[in-house]
Design a protein that fits this description.
140 residues, mainly beta, Ubiquitin-like (UB roll), 4-stranded mixed β-sheet, two-stranded antiparallel ribbon, 8 strands, 11% helix
Length: 140
C-alpha cells in the first residue's frame, strides 16, 4: 500500500483541507510523538519513514525508523510491547505525526519503563534550570 501525497503548494489546503500531504525531512523522516490512548500519557518520540507510515496504516501497529540502526522498526517485534493504533493525527502543516496507541505489556521504553520520558530536568524558583550540575530526577 503506497501512500499518495497531495501537493504542498496551497497553504490553505495544506492547513485546512482533507488531503494527506506529509512533509518528510531531507533524510526522508517525519517526527512521531506517541501517547497512550487510555491515559493520555506521553510514551515516546521517534521518527518514521514513508515505509514505516505505510506499514503502520496497513497493519494497525506502530512502525518507526531507527536512526541509530538505520532500519525500519516494528515497535514490540522483539520485546512484545506492541503499540496498537487507535488514532493517527498530523499537525497543522503536516510535518509531524501523533500516534495514539494501546500499549501492550507493561512498558514502552527499552529500559522497561512505561514511558521513555521518565526523568525531569529540575527548574529553579525563577523558572530557569536549577543549575545544580544539571542533575536529572526521576518522575513518578
Amino acid at each position: 500500500m503506497a501512500i499518495t501525497m497531495a501537493g504542498r503548494d496551497d497553504r490553505d489546503e495544506l492547513e485546512n483541507g482533507d488531503k494527506l500531504a506529509l512533509k518528510f525531512d531531507d533524510r526522508g523522516l517525519i517526527p512521531v510523538v506517541t501517547t497512550c490512548a487510555d491515559t493520555g500519557k506521553l510514551l515516546m518520540q521517534a521518527w518514521a519513514s514513508v515505509e514505516a507510515v505505510e506499514l503502520t496504516l496497513k497493519t494497525g501497529e506502530a512502525h518507526y525508523f531507527s536512526r541509530s540502526r538505520e532500519t525500519l522498526w516494528h515497535k514490540g517485534a522483539t520485546s512484545g510491547e506492541i503499540q496498537y493504533m487507535t488514532e493517527i493525527r498530523t499537525d497543522c502543516d503536516q510535518d509531524c505525526l501523533h500516534y495514539i496507541v494501546k500499549q501492550s505489556g507493561g512498558g514502552c521504553c527499552h529500559t522497561g519503563r512505561a514511558s521513555c520520558f521518565y526523568r525531569i530536568i529540575p527548574l529553579g524558583d525563577d523558572g530557569g534550570a536549577d543549575g545544580d550540575g544539571w542533575k536529572l530526577v526521576m518522575a513518578e
